[in-house]
Amino acid sequence: MTTLNADPAELQKFSDLAHRWWDPASEFKPLHEINPLRLSWIDDIASLSGKDVLDVGCGGGILSEGMASIGATVTGIDLSEKALGVARLHLFESGQKVDYRLVSAEAFADENPARFDVVTCMEMLEHVPDPASTIAACAKLVKPGGHVFFSTLNRNLKAYTFAIIGAEYLLKLLPRGTHEYAKFIKPSELSRYSRNAGLNPQTLMGMSYNPLTKVYSLGRDTDVNYLLHTRRES
Hints:
Elements (H helix, E strand, L loop, with lengths): L7 H9 L12 H18 L5 E5 L5 H8 L3 E6 L2 H14 L3 E5 L2 H7 L4 E7 L8 H11 E12 L3 H14 L16 H10 L2 E12 L4 E5 L5 E8 L2
Parallel strand pairs: 1-2, 1-4, 2-3, 4-5
Antiparallel strand pairs: 5-8, 6-7, 6-8
């Protein structure tokens, strides 16, 4: 009997806020603001239109719907029933089509090996007990030669200062307690986990927030938030 790779406290944290997922002025405002950036970056690399795509840890479906809106066939999986309920309800408003499933990445990978052209796992790895297990599941789910995209938070003094002290306590961009510093992941660690799972790291991209202009941007600064594009070995 395998242990579920999920932290009940983390699931409860996001379940309690699920009804506010699609409110762009809510605690999920940062997700709404970064979504166009990450969606464009993913699409530029993987050309999502017509692709079979899986969004791991989809939550309320912000990225899932974005990928569906540009022509991808999207499946979203999560372990929060409330978040998935909100995601399904929002489809009636948006008119998009996404297949949402209540299942872990590991269990879904056992059922659907090498099924997807593209797998995304964004802002999730820092919330699970065993990120390497999630990464291995993503590798199993993607087709040989397919794309897997991750995003997470670096682990250093700057990341602690900006992502926790700054974002949660000073600027109040996120609820207090959203992140735990010990769960942050260095790019070198994420790259190692990826290689161990049979994924070849391709592009590392930083994502920064300017508190003066209140604008997010992609660039070379990976000190706090960053994204990693990998490909499964053929």
